[in-house]
Design brief:
alpha/beta; Spore Coat Polysaccharide Biosynthesis Protein SpsA, Chain A; UDP N-Acetylglucosamine Acyltransferase, domain 1; 7-stranded mixed sheet; 12 helices
C-alpha cells in the first residue's frame, strides 16, 4: 500500500450538520464521546497501512488542524503523514473549492509530486470500518481505471440513492440519480456477481455508491485536467468517465452510515448503545479507531442509575439518572438530573470546584448540566452551560426551529444546544 495516496474530502460548510459545524469543520465534529468524524477514515487508512493522507477542507479548519497535528504524529522512520490542505486563492485558482472534484483538482500539483500509483478518495462524514487494502487489491486485480465502493440496497431504500448498473464482469455501465418507478426497476442488478449469496442478492438487487473511490494516477489526472468545468466526482466526473474508462464496483457488506445530517448523526451515536451487538463497535483490537490521547482521569460516578449508555473518560456524575445516552469527555452532571436518549459532547476544559462555586455565587452558570435538569432527545455541544432546573424535552414537538440567540436549534425534532451556549436556570425548551 506504499504506492497509495489517500485524499479525504472534508466537505463544504457542513450546512446539514449546522449548528455543530458553526465553529468547526465537519470532519472535526465530535463522535461517540471522545472521537471526531475524521478519525474514522484516517484510522481505516492506518489499519490498511496507507500512511500518506491529505485532508481537504475550506471552512473553520483550525480545530481540525489542531486535532490532526496532536493525534497523528508518525515517527521519523517513514514518510507517513496526515495533513490538512485548506482552500486557498491563487492566480490559477482565484475561487474557493467549487465541489469535490474541484478541491482535488486545485491540489493536483501537490499530489503528483508523490510516487503513487493510485489515489484513494474518501469522505469525511461516514461511519464504517473498511479494510482499504482489499479495496485497492480489487482495483488492481480487475485492471480498473476507477473503482467505486458500493453497498447493496433493497428496493425500499433504493430511490433515495444514486444507483449504478453493472455488467456480468462487474464493470459499471450506467448511473441513475434517485430513480423511481420503471426507471428504478431498470437499475436492478445481479449483486451475486459482486459476492452476495443468492438470498442476499434477491433481497438487495440494487447497488449505491458510498462516495469512496480508487483512481489510477493517470485516469484522475486526465479526467480533472480535460474537464475543467466538471466540479463533482459523483455527479459529473465518474458518470462521464463510464464510456471511455474501465469503472469497476467493489461491494462493501459491512455497516456503513452517512452521518452528514443532524438526525443521522444523532441516531448513529445512540445506536452505539444497542445490545448485545451494536451495528458499529469501537471495541475492535485488530482494527482500532484512533484519536487524540488526552491522559484524562477516570470517570467518577456517585450514586447514579445508568443504563444502556456510554460514558467517556474524565466525567463527574452524581445522584442522577442516565439512559440510552452518550456522554463526552469531561462531562459534568449535577444532582437530581435526568438525561435520556441524548448526546452530550462534554467540555474542552475543567472548572475547579472553587471556580464553579464562585460562578454560582455571582449568579452565573458553570460548564455542564445544573441541578434538577431534565434532558431528552437532545444534542448538547461542548462547553454548554445548562442552568439549574432546566427542561430540554422539545415540549411542543417542534420539528424545525432556529433559536440561535437563545443558544439552541431544533432539527428533525432534536434539540441541539450550541457550543458555548448558556441556558438560564428554569428554562423550558
Amino acid at each position: 500500500m506504499k504506492k497509495v495516496l489517500a485524499i479525504i474530502l472534508g466537505g463544504g460548510a457542513g450546512t446539514r450538520l449546522y449548528p455543530l459545524t458553526k465553529l468547526r469543520a465537519k470532519p472535526a465534529v465530535p463522535l461517540a464521546g471522545k472521537y471526531r468524524l475524521i478519525d474514522i477514515p484516517v484510522s481505516n487508512c492506518i489499519n490498511a497501512e496507507i500512511l500518506k493522507i491529505y485532508v481537504l477542507t475550506q471552512f473553520n479548519s483550525a480545530s481540525l488542524n489542531r486535532h490532526l497535528t496532536r493525534t497523528y504524529n508518525f515517527t521519523g522512520f517513514h514518510d507517513g503523514f496526515v495533513e490538512v490542505l485548506a482552500a486557498q486563492q491563487t492566480t490559477e485558482n482565484p475561487s474557493w473549492f467549487q465541489g469535490t472534484a474541484d478541491a482535488v483538482r486545485q491540489y493536483l500539483w501537490l499530489f503528483e509530486e508523490w510516487d503513487a500509483d493510485e489515489y484513494l478518495i474518501l469522505s469525511g462524514d461516514h461511519l464504517y470500518r473498511m479494510d482499504y487494502s482489499d479495496f485497492v487489491r480489487r482495483h488492481r486485480e480487475t485492471g480498473a481505471d476507477i473503482t467505486l465502493s458500493v453497498v447493496p440496497i433493497d428496493e425500499k431504500r433504493a430511490s433515495s440513492f444514486g444507483l449504478m448498473k453493472i455488467d456480468d464482469s462487474g464493470r459499471i455501465v450506467d448511473f441513475s440519480e434517485k430513480p423511481k418507478g420503471d426507471e428504478l426497476k431498470q437499475m436492478q442488478v445481479d449483486t451475486s456477481i459482486l459476492g452476495l449469496n443468492p438470498e442476499q442478492a434477491k433481497d438487495s438487487p440494487y447497488i449505491a455508491s458510498m462516495g469512496i473511490y480508487v483512481f489510477n494516477k493517470k485516469a484522475l489526472t486526465d479526467l480533472l485536467t480535460n474537464n475543467p468545468e466538471q466540479t463533482d466526482f459523483g455527479k459529473e466526473i465518474i458518470p462521464g468517465a463510464a464510456k471511455d474508462y474501465n469503472l469497476q464496483a467493489y461491494l462493501f457488506k459491512g455497516y456503513w452510515e452517512d452521518i452528514g445530517t443532524i438526525e443521522a448523526f444523532y441516531e448513529a451515536n445512540l445506536a452505539l448503545n444497542r445490545q448485545p451487538r451494536p451495528r458499529f463497535s469501537f471495541y475492535n483490537e485488530k482494527s482500532p479507531i484512533y484519536t487524540r490521547a488526552r491522559n484524562l482521569p477516570p470517570t467518577k460516578v456517585l450514586n447514579c442509575n445508568i443504563t444502556e449508555s456510554m460514558i467517556s473518560e474524565g466525567c463527574m456524575i452524581k445522584d442522577c439518572r442516565i439512559h440510552n445516552s452518550v456522554l463526552g469527555i469531561r462531562s459534568r452532571i449535577e444532582t437530581d438530573c435526568v438525561v435520556e436518549d441524548s448526546l452530550l459532547m462534554g467540555a474542552d476544559y475543567y472548572e475547579s470546584l472553587d471556580t464553579r462555586q464562585s460562578l454560582v455565587d455571582e449568579g452565573k452558570i458553570p460548564v455542564g448540566i445544573g441541578k434538577g435538569s431534565t434532558i431528552r432527545r437532545a444534542i448538547i455541544d461542548k462547553n454548554a452551560r445548562i442552568g439549574q432546573n432546566v427542561t430540554i424535552v422539545n415540549k411542543e414537538n417542534i420539528e424545525e426551529s432556529n433559536r440561535e440567540d437563545d443558544g439552541f436549534y431544533i432539527r428533525n425534532g432534536i434539540v441541539v444546544v450550541c457550543k458555548n451556549a448558556v441556558i438560564p436556570d428554569g428554562t423550558v425548551i
